[in-house]
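Inverse folding, one chain.
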């Protein structure tokens, strides 16, 4: 056996080994392989050991884990004409590897661009107060719209969370003044309600005292006792004639008994 024959056999064996080695693929538990046979979709394989015939078959790996994507800051004009900068975070995963590879060129880029446009579109339909106070509702609206549109790509949008709503300094000061005015309004309303309740109680007390003159006398004496507790001053306490009449009636009743 000459040297040329040995070289040929060695190259042939090396090619066969390389061919067989390249035919075996290992897919992790969270991976799937979309296999094309002569350019046409054949099947989805994995996980585990997968055999792919070189040249004839081509396999594209797809990760099924949840992807956390940061949506870049977007300039949004709210419905009440306030300019704000908003960014968000998007959680999605591939549920159909076949459609994720065949229906869209790059599902990561497509999902990111769709999230940016949807974020601007949805937030532009709401006022600034709703953006600040109703984030949960806005998150659900954006997630629902994205999930409906990415479903054709085999993508499931699990969640969308607004991260920051940045305002200009002038708008922050205006909101602070508005909040201060709102607190003052509430304080005045509470004070007025207190005055109304106090006047109602005083009216009820006056009606009770008017029906029972003895109660007025007792209240008079109680007030005198409270004032007499302070020994640092001299108290001149007038005695109304009505009280003398009441005392006389009480004395007469006592004698009758």
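Residues assigned per position:
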């Amino acid at each position: 056996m000459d040297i040329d024959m040995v070289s040929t056999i060695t190259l042939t064996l090396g090619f066969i080994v390389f061919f067989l080695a390249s035919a075996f693929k290992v897919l992790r538990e969270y991976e799937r392989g979309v296999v094309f046979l002569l350019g046409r979709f054949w099947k989805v394989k994995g996980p585990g050991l997968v055999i792919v015939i070189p040249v004839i078959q081509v396999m594209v790996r797809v990760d099924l884990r949840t992807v956390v994507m940061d949506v870049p800051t977007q300039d949004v004009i709210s419905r009440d004409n306030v300019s704000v900068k908003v960014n968000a975070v998007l959680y999605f995963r591939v549920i159909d590897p076949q459609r994720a590879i065949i229906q869209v060129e790059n599902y990561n880029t497509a999902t990111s661009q769709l999230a940016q446009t949807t974020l601007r579109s949805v937030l532009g339909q709401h006022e600034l107060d709703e953006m600040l106070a109703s984030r949960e509702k806005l998150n659900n609206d954006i997630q629902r719209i994205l999930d409906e549109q990415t479903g054709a790509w085999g993508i499931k949008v699990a969640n969308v969370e607004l991260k920051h709503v940045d305002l200009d300094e002038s708008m922050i000061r205006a909101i602070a003044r508005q909040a201060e005015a709102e607190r003052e309004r509430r304080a005045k309303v509470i004070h007025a309600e207190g005055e109304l309740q106090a006047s109602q109680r005083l009216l009820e007390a006056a009606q009770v005292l008017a029906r029972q003159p003895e109660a007025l006398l007792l209240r008079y004496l109680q007030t005198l006792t409270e004032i007499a507790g302070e020994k640092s001053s001299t108290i001149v306490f007038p005695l109304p004639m009505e009280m003398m009449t009441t005392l006389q009636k009480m004395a007469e009743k006592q004698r009758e008994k």
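The CA atoms of residues 219 and 225 lie 10 Å apart. Residues 3-63 form one domain.
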